[in-house]
Structures are given as structure tokens and as C-alpha cells.
Amino acid sequence: MRRTRRAHEVGAADSARALVRLAFGTTAITLAILVVIAALTLVAVGDGLGSLPATVASMWLGIHQIPLTIGEVTIGVLPLAPTLLMVAAVARATTRATDVDRPHSEVTAVILSAIGGPLLATILSLAVVMDASTVMTIQSPDALLAFACTFAVHAVGAGIGVGLKWWSTLVVRAGVADWVLKGLRCGVVAVTALMTLGAMVVAVRLVINWSVAGDLLAAGNGWIGGLGLTLLSILYLPNMVIGAAGALVGAPVAVGGATVDLFGSQGGQVPPLPILAALPDGGAGHWTALLLIGIACTALFVGRLCVDESLLRNIRMVVVAAATSSLFLVIASVLAGGELGVLGKVGANLPVAGVFMFGWIAVIGSVTALVYRALPSRRRARSNIIDDDYYDDDGRGEEGRSDTDDEGVESNPVADEAAIEFVPVDEQTPLDDDHELSPEPGRPEVIVDGWDPEDWALDEVWDDTGSVVVDEPIDAAEGEELVSTDDFGTRRTR
To answer: Which pLDDT tens digit goes with each residue over 375-385?
Structure first.
């Protein structure tokens, strides 16, 4: 009893320590990294460390996509790279803290711990920024919006971490159809392929316009400024990739005063960020056809993943994949865009991006399903399946068999099964004790009324010892013909 109680106490203490590490471990490491980066930046620009707390607090809020207002300029387009790293770190920590054999209450505690610690850090950051706003140009953001953004970032990370362990269990308990799961996977594949294609486009455009990127780096006033612009460009790389993905599906993407789409761009004032050198200047020209082929191949690849022998299941999977990819692209575009002060908005046109993404996958996927079904090889495969399940050995169904098919064919029961001859009682040969039952050569075995004479039972008498004494055959009663009897005295007569 004491050992059991002690084990429970140790387990509870370990669980409490694990929850504390989950709540404050990732947060503490992130804040420590931000302190180092902020201190190096302030020292490099020759500023004192007096503004270090406000800088760290602002960076913490920026990681959670909370808009910041400096002076009269509101920066709503924040880099996504730190946010994605935060989500990945929370997901990893949550995965390590949970398991499928844990009760639901512990899983709930894990999720709440993963969210509670960062919310406390956000409260402290808001207090620091509010205090610094009295002596600096930075303004304190909306507290409710700050809490909502922090909650969303860490809830997504915790949900991913728990889902990695509980996905199979949740799917089985919810009874999700297999075609829905396959459609979801194909939708994720579609988004991944589109983002990969967008990253390739950004990389190629940077190589082509490398001289423009070099000029923007040179405008950083020294190697420190150039290093800062380079790091900032890396942090904004996911935003650029998402914008390129939106442009690839045909949606117009606004970058300050400029507008970019699949067929070209319209010039305007843009921020002096080196990564923006990837923006096209003028019409796309022959690049348009190449980009159309790329997005069409992506949709064709997703449609090929959704193929199924059943046309209805195939169309359903294509629709689920199209809806999933469209939803992911819209959410990503919302996160990658926002207000950019006096330069205006940045980001893709959300309704157009969602509709076009759905259209690419749904239309090309449906055409792929129809073509796949019409292929001669698939038609032969379906025909073979139908023949195996519903047709006879001669390859014709019951409706295809005529009444004259069996004419002229003589029945030969001996060829189908062993012949059985029933001998009437009056023609049966009396048997004596020395007679041995053996059929004559070339003649079928003789069966008397369905019973083999060798199996006729003998009279069995039970003695006091429980043993069976076999005597002579049982005589039939008057007017009856004895056929057999069993060990329990049951008589078979006729």
C-alpha cells in the first residue's frame, strides 16, 4: 500500500515538472535568444542597452504576428519564419509530453500548459511596451488582439503535437471515411507542391535580378546594415513564397504600390528589401506559359494521386483535396499579408486565390478521373472484375444463356458423381455370418436403403462394470425391418 502511494506521488511530481517545463521551457529559451539578438543589434548600431527590455518585448509580440505601431506607421506584415519556428518548437515539446496511453485529463493539461506559459509572457511584454511608450515612439498594441494571436500560435503548435500522437486514435473514434483521409492528404500534397513551386520561382527570379538585390544590399550603409537586411530578407522568405504561390494560381498580389500576377506586374513603390528583387518588372512574356505548365502539372499530379476505381469516390477525393488546398492557401495568405504603413497593403487577393486554387485542383483532378476511367486498360480491368463476380465460367450471365444451350447434351450422372444403386428389400440377398460384403468387379457398391450393411450395429449389453458386451445382431420386431441401432439402443426400422 505504501509503495503504491509512493509510486503515485512520484508520478504526480514528474507530471507536474513536465507541465512546468512545457509551459515555460520553450518560452524561456525563446526569450533568451531574443535578448542576445537584441543586445547585439543595439551594440552594433551604437545605441545603449536602456531600450533592451522594450526591444525584446516588441520582438516577442512580433513573433506572434501582433501588429506593431512605431510613430504613425503600423507594421502589420511581420516575418513568418520566426512564427513557424515557434510553432514547430511547441509541437515538438507537446509531442514529447503526451502519449496515447495517457487519460484525456492529462492531455488537456498538456495543451493548457503549452498555451498558458506564453500567455503570461505576452502579458509581461504588453506591460513593458506600455511602459516604454511613454518615452519611446512605440505604441502598445491591442491587448485582446495580442492574447488572441498568442493563443492561436501556441494552440496550433500544441494541436499539431498532440495530433502526431493521437491522429490514428481520433480518426478511428470519429469514424472518418478513408476517401476523406486520402483527400485531406492529397490537399496537403497540393499545398506543399505549390509552395515548392513558388520557392523555385522566387529563387530563379533572385538569380536573374541579382544585380538589383546587390544594389539594395549596398544601400544598407556598411556591412552591419547589409547583414541586417540579409537576415531580414531570410525572415521574410516564407512571406515571399506564399505570395508567389498566390500569384501562380492566378490571384493578383499587392506589394505596396506594385501588383503582381501570373501574367506580369504593375510598377509601384515597394520597401527597399533585397528579397523583393524577385518581383517581376513588366510583362511575364514567355514565363507565363512555363508557369501555367508548372501549376497544371501540380494539379495533374494531385489528380493522379486521387485516382480510384470508383468514379464517385474519385470525384469526392478531388473535391476534398481542392477544398483543403484552397483553405490552406487562404490562411497562409492572411498570415503572410497585412498593412505596411504608408505603402498600403501586402498580400494576395484572398477570394480570388481561394477560388482559383479550388478550380485548378477540382477541374484538372476531375478530368484526370474521367480520363483514367476511360482508359482501355481500366475498362478491361473493371470488365474482368465483373466477370469474376457475376458471370459463369463460360463468360456469359444468366440473361445471356439461351434455352437451347443444353439441347443435344446427354446427361451422364456417372461422370458427375459416383453412382448409387438402391436395391429393393425383396431383392436383397440374405447375409450370413461368414459372408463378406464386397462388390463384384465392374459393379457399383451395393447400398441398402442408404445404409451400408457393414455398419449395422450389433446388440450391446451393459454390465455392472460399465463395459460393453457385443452379442448377436438385434432381431427385428414383428412387422418391422431393422436397419440399424446405435450404442444407446436407438433402433432404426422401417
So the answer is: 776 665 555 55
The 8-class DSSP code of residue 451 comes to B
Residues 60 and 130 in one domain: yes
Distance in angstroms (rounded) separating the CA atoms of residues 357 and 327: 9
**Sole residue written with cell 498555451:** 115
Dump pLDDT digits (tens) for 251-281: 999 887 788 888 877 877 788 888 888 888 7
β-pairing verdict for 482-485 and 468-473: unpaired
Q: Which amino acid is at 47?
A: D
Of 332, 347, 368, 336, which is closest to residue 186 (Cα–Cα)?
368
Whether residue 469 is contained in a domain is answered as yes
In terms of domains, do 158 and 218 share one? no
If asked whether residues 121 and 262 sit together in one domain, one would say: no
Pull the grid cell for residue 94: 507537446
Q: What is the DSSP string of 187-250?
A: HHHHHHHHHHHHHHHHHHHHHHTHHHHHHHHHTTSSHHHHHHHHHHHHHTHHHHHHHHHHHHTT
Question: Do residues 187 and 118 share a domain?
Answer: no
Look at the block and give the residue holding cell 498568442. Answer: 150
State phi, psi for 443 to the nearest 5 degrees: -120, 140
> What domain range is 468 assigned to?
417-493
Tell the burial category of 231 from Cβ atoms under 10 Å away from its Cβ (0-12, 13-18, 19+): middle
Which grid coordinates are listed for 467?
Answer: 463395459
Residues 6+ apart with CB under 8 A from 366: 303, 315, 318
Examine residue 285 and state whether it is found in any structural domain, yes or no. Answer: yes
Q: How far apart are CA 257 and CA 340, in angstroms?
A: 10
Q: On the CB side of 218, how many CA atoms lie within 13 Å of its CA?
A: 6
| Cα–Cα nearest to 350, from 237, 253, 236 | 253
- pLDDT tens digits, one per residue of 297-321: 999 999 888 888 788 888 999 999 9
d(CA 254, CA 266): 10
Do 31 and 85 lie in a common domain? yes
Q: In terms of domains, do 163 and 220 share one? A: no
